[in-house]
Amino acid sequence: MPLLLLPERRRLGGDPSSAPTLQRLLARGDSSTVPDGAAAQMHAAFDIVPRHLSPAALSREHDARDAALNAWLRADPGHVRADMGMGRLLACGDLGLTPDEVEALLKPLRPLFGDEGFPISAPHPGRWYLMLPREVQLPAFAAPDAVLGDDLYNHLPQGEPGRRWRRLLNEAQVILHNHPVNAARAAQGRVTVNTLWFWGGGTLPGSVRSAWTTLHSGDPVLRALAGLAAMSVADLDTGDGDRADAGVVEVGHIDAGTMLDLRDVRDRAALERRWLAPLFAQQRRGRLDTIELLFADGLRVRYAPAHRWRFWRRPPATPS
Q1: Which of 217, 237, 284, 288 has the fewest CB within 10 Å, making it most exposed?
Q2: In whole angstroms, what is the distance from residue 57 CA to residue 54 CA?
């Protein structure tokens, strides 16, 4: 049973008629609901113990293969703009930094975080990390997707648990504001790095298993989970162009143990052409039994060959 991880249905643009296979699967398959969100999708695809997921520890394992002995917290580079008395977070993560720029920006930050016992490093230009003792107690941090476009300070941890992190953020912002790398980037019309964003803290899970054997994804967190579950991992091109159009063919004839990460797809017609129609054709030829769709809004659909006779059913309404 191949599993397709998909975005929220409301994020799929285009006329529903441009994706007849999707409409058929939604209407005639067996539907159920799971909690919404990325973490719920991962728990549905993997058996994870303990259940707490740390994106920081998992992406660190993907980036550096050294996450096992410590706790980790993402401290990603970001850009905040003063706007009507607030600091609006406009970008976080991939800001197009060169390796030399990353190293220069980290140099004055190392004493700040090193003195706290939290060494900072950046094995990837858009993913920066603080290494923490495993026993450290962290407040709840918001993921960047929940903060982008909003006042950064509305999402900082409050009270005594968050006091240290508010202080560290303020001190980091002062260092970055005065950094010559940012002066040069501003002169070139490039986005400056004037803040960090802390999020995703924790340790690697103790155990990860999955009913699937192969993952096709570019997401570092998902790839790390698959590695811990001893799955084989490969890339998946979901962008425009010939490679993406041949996606299923390049992946190979999808078998029951394949998990496809299509959460970045935003166009119904592209989803239909590149993935759903070829998978449905494989099922009609008897090469697949059940096809499973798992949407980020919590809808889970399993479509078996016998469901083709449910011609009277209509797809559920898309959440607004």
Answers
A1: 284
A2: 5
Instruction: Report the sign of the C-alpha dihedral through residues 294, 213, 199, 206, in that order.
Output: positive
The token pair at 90 is 């406009």
Sheet bearing 232-234, strands edge to edge: 30-33, 299-303, 291-295, 3-6, 258-261, 214-216, 232-234
Residue closest to 192 by CA, chosen among 72, 111, 82, 56: 82
Q: What are phi and psi of 265, to 5 degrees?
A: -70, 135
Structural Rg of the chain based on CA atoms: 22
Q: What percent of the chain has pLDDT over 70?
A: 94
- Tell me which residue has tokens 């006329």: 15
Task: Kindly report the pTM of this predicted structure.
Answer: 0.87
Q: What is the pLDDT of residues 54-72, one digit of tens each?
A: 999 999 999 999 999 999 9
Task: Give me the residues paired with residue 198 across strands.
Answer: 75
Collapsing DSSP to helix, strand or coil, 297 comes out as coil
